[in-house]
Design brief:
- By secondary structure, the protein is an all-alpha fold.
- It folds into two domains: 113 residues, Four Helix Bundle (Hemerythrin (Met), subunit A) (Up-down Bundle), CATH 1.20.120.350; 109 residues, Helix Hairpins.
- It is built from 15 helices and no strands.
- Helix 10 runs antiparallel to helix 14.
- The chain is flat, with a radius of gyration of 32 Å.
Length: 292
């Protein structure tokens, strides 16, 4: 019984059926943001029941309980589906529990589990986050240094930093260290960083010369957007190659029949080559003993 259920839940037809249910569920979640009806509510309940049945079938068809809970996607499914059973009345009476209502949206991410290619990409992202810790630390150190320098050099009020056309309630981009952090992030993304420079030119901020303003903004853009970000991209690409190699090796291990077929085919080719060689040798010997 367990073997049959295991085969069923790992079949292509079952995966396609679950993908269709997830897509319907995602569509209804979007529709509920501007319209709801009794039909949608009952349909969502049926879908929730299907998700619960899927979890039960996957648990019954597990190879072992340890392997089942060792898979993070299975734990993710259990948490997301369990949260969906919390009554809506609790969300209305508690602001803290409203977070759980938001978690229902994450049911869309269950689509990643059923598509191996998406799982590989998510694995790359998670592995990259683990290996990029020191890169982010280095980025934070440089950002912290530039943020302090920006506050010291360019703090001068909202009009001086944002230009005369900006209202008095607009914050000074370099007025505080936190605002300076956001300004540096804005420069790193390339969002209107030249306007920051132009608005500071012309002696609007005391002690900040034009060449110093230019050197500050250009050096930060070059350091962050071209050097540090490229380190991140390089690490992601490297992790992608590693994860793909592991995925391909796992696919070969999970399909021993194909590997056995190739091995058998190679054995037959070797045997045929040996027989042909022996046949050619016999022909040569006969020709040597044949008269004139």
């Amino acid at each position: 019984m367990r073997a049959k259920i295991h085969t069923m839940v790992n079949s292509l037809a079952f995966a396609l059926w679950i993908n269709l249910i997830i897509l319907i569920n995602a569509t209804l979640i979007g529709i509920e943001t501007f319209h709801t009806s009794t039909l949608i509510v009952y349909t969502q309940r049926i879908i929730l029941g299907i998700f619960t049945l899927e979890i039960a079938l996957r648990f019954i068809g597990r190879t072992s309980t340890r392997d089942y809970f060792a898979d993070g996607w299975n734990v993710f499914d259990i948490v997301i589906v369990s949260v969906s059973y919390i009554p809506d009345s609790l969300f209305e009476n508690s602001a803290a529990l409203s977070v759980f209502r938001i978690m229902r949206v994450f049911r869309i991410l269950r689509l990643v589990k059923t598509l191996p290619e998406l799982k590989v990409i998510v694995s790359v992202l998670l592995k990259s986050l683990k290996s990029l810790g020191y890169t982010f630390i280095l980025l934070f150190i440089f950002m912290y240094m530039y943020a302090i320098i920006g506050v010291i050099l360019f703090r001068g009020g909202p009009v001086a930093a944002n230009g005369p056309s900006v209202g008095p309630t607009s914050p000074d981009p370099y007025g505080t260290i936190m605002e300076s952090f956001f300004t540096l992030f804005r420069i790193m993304t390339g969002e209107d960083w030249t306007d920051l420079r132009y608005n500071l030119l012309g002696g609007q901020v005391v002690g900040a010369t034009d060449w110093l303003i230019t050197a500050y903004h250009v050096s930060w853009l070059g350091l962050s957007a071209f050097l540090l970000i490229n380190l991140v991209v390089g690490a992601v690409v490297n992790n992608y190659d590693q994860v793909m190699a592991e995925y391909q090796a796992e696919q070969e291990d999970n399909d021993p029949s194909e590997a056995g077929t190739i091995t058998e085919l190679n054995r037959k080719v070797d045997l045929l080559t040996q027989q042909v060689s022996e046949l050619l040798s016999k022909v040569d010997r006969k020709q040597e003993h044949s008269p004139g």
